[in-house]
């Protein structure tokens, strides 16, 4: 049975222009339970981790200023969010959800976070609606606890935006291989250097995208030999997305998830999946595309 991290994220007050994308965090669990993909018992409530775990990844000065609302105006503007206590709680809870998913994936093979994938957060700053980097923090937790048996990690970032914060955090960490396949013209305008970046031209379609993924992922698994995988399954690759420039269909997005998760399953690699972005005009397109990720996982790890 799947383990799924959930927190009442939409209940936290946000500006009106951010509320629509946040609806998916409430609608997606409802959809999964209603259609029978997972029972309600599959969900666990995410809670914040201890400070020491966060500080394995983030600078203490930045973390304390974020906690107490002492960011400069420029720093706050870069995050895209006005600061509030509720916003801090939201971000640290997302990180806690991914951390607990990591523990559960070690036991059961897979775990998913309804939120997460905050890959634009750097050690010392936030950017692009990301304040704390949840997958980086969970990866550092694994490396900091050798008794868990994880010494090599692969981060597969298939959000339409490059995982710039994640790439910078692990730039000098050979035990973590960062792979980002993203729109070449999408945010961020200044890209960092992942271990492997595959920037895609505008309007890349299903066939081109999937062929490149199928050519690349087996090689990474063979060469890096990871013990653990983090997968960022953003659905902003859809042609319907307002912020993306790619042209995947919902079926193409589902096949992408199928290929990544089947590869992890076949190699017996524990995997944590985080949702990442999704900004289509119709909320139904966002929820359905995200739901496909969970359906694929439920079929594989049933």
From TrEMBL:
Keywords: Hydrolase. Residues 22-291 form the Histone deacetylase domain. GO terms for molecular function: histone deacetylase activity; hydrolase activity. The keyword ATP-binding does not apply. One of its GO terms (biological process) is epigenetic regulation of gene expression. Pfam families: Hist_deacetyl. Belongs to the histone deacetylase family. This is Acetoin utilization deacetylase AcuC.
């Amino acid at each position: 049975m799947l383990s799924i991290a959930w927190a009442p994220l939409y209940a936290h007050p946000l500006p009106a222009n951010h509320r629509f994308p946040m609806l998916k965090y409430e609608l997606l669990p409802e959809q999964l339970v209603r259609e029978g993909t997972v029972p309600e018992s599959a969900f666990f409530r995410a809670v914040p981790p201890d400070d020491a775990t966060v500080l394995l990844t983030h600078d203490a000065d930045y973390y304390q200023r974020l906690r107490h609302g002492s960011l400069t105006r420029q720093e706050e503007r870069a995050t895209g969010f006005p600061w509030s206590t509720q916003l801090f709680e939201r971000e640290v809870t997302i990180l806690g959800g991914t951390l607990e998913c990591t523990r559960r994936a070690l036991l059961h093979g897979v775990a998913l976070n309804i939120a997460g994938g905050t890959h634009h957060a750097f050690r010392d700053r936030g950017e692009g609606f990301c304040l704390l980097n949840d997958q980086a923090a969970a990866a550092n937790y694994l490396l900091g606890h050798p008794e868990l048996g994880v010494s090599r990690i692969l981060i597969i970032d298939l959000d339409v935006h490059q995982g710039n914060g994640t790439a910078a955090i692990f730039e000098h960490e050979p035990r973590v291989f960062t792979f980002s396949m993203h729109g070449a013209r999408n945010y961020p305008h200044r890209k960092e250097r992942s271990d492997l970046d595959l920037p895609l031209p505008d309007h890349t379609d299903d066939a081109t995208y999937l062929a490149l993924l199928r050519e690349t992922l087996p090689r990474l698994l063979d060469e890096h030999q990871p013990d653990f995988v983090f997968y960022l399954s953003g659905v902003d690759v859809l042609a319907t997305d307002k912020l993306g420039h790619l042209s995947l269909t919902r079926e193409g997005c589902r096949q992408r998830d199928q290929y990544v998760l089947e590869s992890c399953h076949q190699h017996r690699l524990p995997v944590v999946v985080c949702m990442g972005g999704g900004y289509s005009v119709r909320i139904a397109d966002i929820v359905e595309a995200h739901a496909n990720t969970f359906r694929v996982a439920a079929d594989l790890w049933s």
